Amino acid sequence: MRLRLLLLALGTFAVGTDGMVTAGILPLVARDLDVSISVAGQMVTVFALSYGVLAPVLATVTARWPRRRTLLTALAVFSAANALTALAPSYDALLATRVLAAVGAALYTPTANAVATTLVPAERRGRAIAVVMGGLTVATALGVPLGTWIGRTDWRLTMWLVTGLGVAAFAGLALLLPELPQPAAALSLRARFAPLADRRVLGAAGTTFLVFLAFQTTYIYYTVATRHATHGSQDRLTLLLLVSGCSAVAGSSLGGRLIDRWGPRVVILSASTAYVALAAAAPWTLRTMPTALVSSALTPVFGWSIMVGQITRVTSLDPANAPVLISLNSSALYLGMAAAGGTGSLALSLFGERWFLLAGAGLALLATVVAALTTRPAPQPRVSTDTPEPART
Q1: For position 178, what pLDDT does the model report?
Q2: In whole angstroms, what is the distance from residue 238 CA to residue 223 CA?
Q3: How far apart are the first and last CA of the chain?
C-alpha cells in the first residue's frame, strides 16, 4: 500500500518538477531558441494557465472514467508532451507542447489525490493525501535543483529527466495499481464553481492567486535576479535553488505545526508580513552570494507557511466539500503562476534586472491586505448587560 502511494507521489514529483524547473534553465532556453528571457518565461505562463483553466473541466469530463485508466492516460500524455518539449525545434512548437503537458498534469494531480483516499482506511486518508502532495514539495527541494544541474549545458536534458520521471510513474502504477472502484456520481462544472458565490471562498482563492503571483513574478526570473551573486554560474544557481527547496519543505512542516497552535489566520498574516519584508529587501540581498543564500533559506519558509495556512483555511470553510474547495484553490494557484509570467516580464522590461523584484514585494503586500480583510472573524452579536426594571404592580 505504501509503495502505491509513493508511486502516486512520484507522479506529482514529476508534475511539480516540470512546473518549477524552468526557473533554472530559462537563459539556456532563450539562447537556444533565439528569444529574449522574458519571452522564454512565457512557457511557464502557458503551462500554468492551461493547468488552471483545464483542471476543473477535465475533472468533470473524465469523472466517470475508471480512475486507474485516468491516471495512466494522464501520465502517458504528460510524458509524451515532455518528450516533445525536449525535441521542440522552435519556440512556437515549445509552447504547444507545454499546453499538452498541462493537460496531463491537470488530469493527473486531482485524480492521484482521489485515488490515495481509496487505498487506505478512512482514518488515514489525510496522511495518504499528504504523501501524494508531498511529491510537489519534494520537487521544489530536489527536482528543481537536480533538473537545473543536469541541464546546465543543455536544457533539453532537463526535459528528458522529467519525461523519465513520468514514464517511471506510469510503469510502476501500470504494474502495481489494481483496478479501483467506479467513481461516484460526479459534480457538474457549475456545481464545482458554485462555492465561489461564498465571499469567504472567493477571498481565499483571491489570496492564493495573489500570493503565487507575487512569488512566481520573482521565481520565474530567479536566474536573472541572482545573476550578480552567481556570476552566471549554474553550479551556484543550483545551490541557491537547493537551499530554497529544502526551506520550502521546512516551511510546510513548520506552518502545519504553527497552524495547529495558533490557527490559519495568525500564521497567514504573520508569514505574509515577513515575506513582504524579505521580498522588499531582495534587490539588495540577492546581490551577493552569502546574502542570497540567507534570502533563499528564509523566503520559502514563510511563503510555504502561507500556502499551508491557505489550504487549512479553505477546507475549514466547508469540510464536507473540501475536495472541491481544494481544487478551486489549486486553480487559483496555477492561474497566479500563469499571470506571473506576464507581470514578471513587464516588471523586468520596465525596472530592469535589479528593481523588478520590488514588483513581487508590492504584490505580496496586496495579498497580505486581502488576507487581512477576508479572514476577519465575524462580529459577535452584542449582549445587553443592563438589568431589566422590575415589573410594576
Answers
A1: 75
A2: 10
A3: 78
Work out the pLDDT band at 123, boundaries 50, 70, 90.
low
Q: Residue 362 is inside which H or E element, if any? A: helix 357-374
The closest of 266, 257, 272, 280 to 306, measured between CA atoms, is: 272
CA angle 21, 217, 162 (to 5 degrees): 10
Rounded-to-integer distance, Cα 374 and Cα 219, Å: 26
Is the pLDDT assigned to residue 380 strictly greater than 60?
no
Contact assessment for residue 165 and residue 138, using Cβ atoms and an 8 Å cutoff: no
Average pLDDT over residues 70-74: 92
The residue behind cell 521565481 is 219
Please give the Cα distance from 27 to 79 (Å, whole number). Answer: 24
- Of 310, 287, 291, which is closest to residue 299 (Cα–Cα)? 291
Cell reading at 123: 482514518
Q: Which grid coordinates belong to 326? A: 481544494
Write down the pTM of the prediction: 0.75
| Average pLDDT of the chain, as a whole number | 84
Q: Using alpha carbons, list the distances in angstroms from residue 267 to 58, 153, 254, 273, 296.
A: 33, 41, 10, 10, 20
Q: Which of the 8 DSSP states describes residue 232?
A: T
Could you tell me the three cell numbers for 267?
500564521
Task: Please report, rounded to a whole number, the percentage of residues in the chain having pLDDT higher than 70.
Answer: 88
Instruction: Give the separation between CA 391 and CA 71, rounded to whole angstroms.
Output: 74
